[in-house]
Hints:
By secondary structure, this protein is mainly alpha-helical. It has one domain (2-119): MetI-like (MetI-like fold), CATH 1.10.3720. The protein is built from five helices and no strands. α3 (28-64) packs parallel to α4 (70-79) and α3 (28-64) packs antiparallel against α5 (83-119). The radius of gyration is 21 Å and the shape is elongated. The two termini are 32 Å apart. 5% of the residues are buried. Its main location: membrane.
Amino acid sequence: MLVKVYAEAIEEIDKGVIEAIKATGGSQFQVIMQGVLPTIMSAFISWSVFRFDVNIRYAAVLGIVGAGGIGWELVRASRVMAYDQVLGVTLVIFGMIISMEFLTRYLKKRSDVVSAKAAS
């Protein structure tokens, strides 16, 4: 799935920026570093972190249905009525999801600043 999104982000690059860098004598490396990467980094970061976040959530759900992982620990603790462990595992899952949300916002803001600098 990520490959398709990455390919679409690369296809949406403004060709005028690349032509402008080449017209001013820019090397292929400069075209990539100053024309391509600032344009696609926001999409790459957003989609990568989003998929990682989804994978964390899926790991918890798959564990609940018996595939192992952190969801299995939650089920195991609830079956033996170890509610302190249930709370602990739930807080770990919640903490991972919240930290991914903060990481996503931080990286998105940072990539938007880089993209804005590259555009000006």
